[in-house]
Task: inverse folding
């Protein structure tokens, strides 16, 4: 059906009797109608002229409306642009960032030039503000404190092709070597020591990153630090996080109190859940890492849900809370960089995000502490080599089995315990320094040194002293050297002489440095692995007497029953 207003100049198209061009309308006798122009106008009004005038007035109003709308729209664009710029600057102003000073090593690009991302996520136990004192407690005698420990440590690995991710927790009770560090902000320093891994944060975030890098050999190029109040802000910003507990639980230490089943936790309740170490598992930090994985998986699913990311108000609250809650390295120190990181995380399907806990063994010197356990080195190398834990059936590949058989004759030695003297036997300046840096970036000891070889060398050799064959094999594997380059000497350590057959690069040309396929089964063995899409997984409440109420030891479920008058955390 045609529009009645589609005629010329916006007028209606009406049927008319054909007229002779140039001839006036006339009466029955052919004369002009009586009354002249006034009568003609009256006759016109009688036949619809008033409608034409109304159309003229409407067209005028329409033009005025369009002009007002254009002005209003222009003002709105200016205001919106200004608000957007203010918002961007406001968020940037929220962010606190520090330099890593290269302490975490450097990621290698894949064959297509893509680079993985490795982030150390730290949960600080610091009571460095009144808000954190109120949330964390323990300030009644000391007041606001200055130092902090990294009670939560997670290495977040996002693959170079963004197809998969691994989150590996390192229990805070792990004993390890802390390297020499100096905090650029507090000026506090240490020459290095053997101690609990979470204590490295006392010397700054860069020291914590360097400690984890040295322990695992995984390059860490970024860090994110979150305190008590940050957890509260983030959980509130997403509208709460859904979790499930396998039984009634009351952790009298973190104050988490929940009935069996599903709950949505916000604010302080969320903090109580992620802090609870006596409520879950065996009552140690190992059980806590698993419940934290459940919480983070639920939060990631919430981030990815359409309801969160398409609601402007929710996005604003989330961005504002995140930038206020997080301390990051310079590489993540702007809103643009954080958005880029969020986009990278969002590309990974939840079913290909694997959460694990580093395998541990009891510390022979302290029953309350742990050390790196069997299988951990395989997990470390899988992450460092950018290999997914979610591909394949979990069976050992032929290549992985062959590699395991080849190294079974000699016990593995952690790279962090191996120092190499690198000597330049070429005419290329800086070769020893380049290779030595590559070794320390792979987690080898910071005691690795460089020198000029006594004479020119045509062939690269790695000479090892008595009892150092296993160390030599570890170093050779990292550098891509075959067994033909190894030889036993009379010295006590490892000496690498770079020959003219290796003029450039950090890996021996045509060598064996390409990582073998991951042994997924060994990597996740006893690592409490789960993927982020497992929405029905409940945190396992401890069956042991891990809590105390009124001086009586009891299980968290018994404590829940005995404390009926205490409100639940989500009430």
Result:
């Amino acid at each position: 059906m045609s529009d009645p207003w589609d005629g010329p100049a916006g007028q209606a198209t009406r049927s008319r009797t054909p007229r002779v061009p140039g001839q006036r309308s006339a009466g029955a006798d052919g004369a002009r109608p009586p009354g002249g122009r006034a009568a003609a106008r009256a006759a016109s009004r009688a036949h619809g002229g008033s409608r034409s005038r109304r159309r003229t007035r409407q067209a005028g109003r329409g033009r005025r409306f369009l002009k007002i709308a254009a002005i209003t729209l222009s003002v709105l664009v200016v205001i919106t642009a200004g608000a957007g710029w203010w918002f961007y600057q406001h968020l940037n102003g929220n962010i606190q960032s520090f330099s890593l000073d290269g302490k975490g090593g450097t990621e290698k690009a894949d064959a297509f030039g893509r680079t993985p991302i490795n982030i150390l996520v730290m949960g600080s136990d610091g009571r460095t503000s009144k808000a954190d004192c109120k949330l964390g407690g323990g300030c009644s005698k000391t007041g606001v404190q200055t130092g902090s420990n990294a009670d939560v440590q997670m290495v977040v690995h996002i693959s170079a092709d963004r197809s998969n991710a691994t989150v590996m927790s390192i229990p805070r009770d792990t004993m390890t070597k802390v390297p020499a560090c100096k905090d650029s902000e507090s000026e506090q320093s240490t020459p290095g020591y053997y101690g609990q891994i979470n204590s490295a944060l006392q010397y700054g975030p860069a020291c914590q990153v360097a400690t984890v890098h040295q322990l695992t050999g995984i390059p860490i190029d970024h860090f994110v630090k979150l305190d008590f109040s940050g957890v509260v802000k983030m959980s509130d910003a997403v509208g709460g996080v859904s979790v499930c507990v396998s039984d009634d639980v009351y952790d009298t230490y973190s104050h988490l109190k929940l009935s069996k089943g599903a709950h949505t936790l916000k604010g302080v309740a969320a903090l109580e859940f992620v802090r609870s170490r006596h409520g879950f598992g065996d009552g140690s930090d190992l059980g806590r890492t698993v419940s934290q994985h459940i919480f983070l998986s639920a939060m990631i699913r919430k981030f990815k849900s359409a309801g969160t990311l398409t609601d402007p108000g929710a996005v604003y609250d989330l961005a504002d809370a995140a930038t206020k809650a997080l301390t990051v390295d310079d590489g993540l120190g702007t809103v643009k960089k954080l958005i880029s990181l969020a986009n990278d995380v969002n590309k990974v399907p939840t079913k290909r995000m694997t959460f694990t806990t580093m395998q541990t063994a009891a510390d022979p010197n302290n029953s309350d502490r742990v050390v790196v356990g069997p299988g951990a080195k395989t997990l470390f190398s899988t992450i460092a080599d950018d290999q997914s834990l979610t591909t394949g059936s979990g069976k050992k590949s032929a290549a992985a089995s062959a590699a395991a058989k080849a190294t079974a004759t000699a016990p593995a030695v952690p790279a962090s315990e191996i120092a190499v003297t690198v000597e330049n036997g070429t005419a290329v300046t800086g070769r020893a320094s380049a290779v030595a840096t590559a070794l320390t970036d792979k987690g080898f000891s910071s005691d690795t040194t460089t020198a000029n070889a006594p004479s020119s060398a045509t062939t690269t050799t790695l000479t090892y002293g008595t009892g150092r064959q296993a160390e030599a094999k570890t170093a050779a594997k990292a550098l891509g050297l075959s067994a033909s380059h190894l030889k036993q000497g009379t010295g006590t350590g490892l000496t690498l002489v770079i020959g003219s057959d290796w003029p450039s690069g950090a890996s021996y040309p045509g060598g064996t440095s390409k990582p073998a396929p991951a042994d997924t089964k060994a990597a996740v063995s006893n690592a409490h692995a789960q993927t982020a899409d497992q929405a029905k997984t409940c945190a396992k409440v401890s069956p042991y007497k891990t809590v105390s109420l009124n001086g009586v030891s009891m299980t968290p479920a018994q404590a829940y029953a005995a404390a009926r008058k205490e409100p639940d955390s989500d009430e």
In short: The two ends are 62 Å apart (CA to CA). The mean pLDDT is 79. The domain at 117-394+524-562 is CATH 3.40.630.190 (Aminopeptidase).
